[in-house]
Design a protein that fits this description.
The protein is α+β, with helices and mostly antiparallel strands. The chain has helices at about 1-30, 90-100, 110-130, 130-135, 140-155; strands at about 160-180, 180-195, 205, 210-225, 230-240. Pfam families: Tim44.
Length: about 240
């Protein structure tokens, strides 16, 4: 009888053990939707979401000023030579020193990489006449200029086709800091295929096949120490 009782108890515990192991395996072997996604080196890490822009603000989201440093008091730092970013001892280097003193988390190389994405997004949105996208990316003055060009194109019944072949370079060519407002000027070298068609579909400018070299110079601005890490696109010009 004792043997029968022992065997029955053993069977019960074995059954419970098998059940527990099965449940653990079923949970650990499934994706619940809360796992961290694979690391993407092109995405900027954010420890906290960026502050919402105020009404009327138009911003460009670029890396460079970590939100964990936002609002922090300026920190005295040794000037850096910024070799490979800007010419050492140049006005741009001194400007980067001024930014770095107030925001030591600033990374000009990451900024330049983000500026490439902003450039392609804005140029593509302009070609499509995508006002919604442009409104969120441009300062009011720049947006007004783009809007006038789009309206002129629409009145003429024209459409623009633009395809990016490559962005060969996005280099920082100027940095200026005044009254805590930083301005960074970026020179872009890109290859595009662009063509303008009239209402009948005929090409009136450019070519749908030819690759052209394009140089643009854009300037972004931001108030240093602000909780908002976004940069406004405040000026554009064709470069040489």
């Amino acid at each position: 009888m004792m043997q029968d009782s022992f065997d029955l108890t053993t069977l019960i515990f074995l059954g419970l053990a098998v059940f527990v192991i099965w449940k653990l395996r079923s949970v650990l072997g499934q994706k619940t939707g809360s796992e961290r996604p694979p690391f993407n080196p092109l995405m900027r890490r954010r420890e906290e979401p960026p502050a919402a822009p105020r009404d009327g603000d138009n911003v460009v989201r670029l890396p460079g000023a970590g939100p964990e440093r936002a609002g922090a008091a300026p920190v005295a730092t040794v000037p850096r030579n910024w070799k490979g970013v800007v010419e050492p001892n140049s006005a741009a280097a001194r400007g980067l020193d001024a930014i770095f003193q107030q925001e030591p988390g600033f990374d000009p190389r990451a900024f330049a990489d983000g500026a490439k994405l902003a450039y392609e997004t804005i140029v593509t949105a302009f070609a499509k006449g995508d006002r919604k996208t442009l409104k969120t990316l441009l300062s009011r003055e720049v947006a007004d200029g783009f809007e006038r060009a789009i309206q002129t194109r629409e009145r003429a019944g024209q459409t623009v086709e633009t395809t990016f072949v490559s962005i060969d370079k996005a280099e920082i060519v100027g940095v200026d800091v005044r009254n805590r407002v930083a301005q960074i000027t970026v020179r872009y070298l890109s290859k595009l295929i662009t063509a303008t068609r009239n209402a009948q579909g005929a090409v009136v400018d450019g070519s749908p096949e030819a690759v052209v070299d394009v140089t643009d110079v854009w300037t972004f601005a931001r108030t240093l120490g602000s909780r908002d890490p976004n940069w406004q696109l405040v000026a554009t010009e064709a470069g040489q």
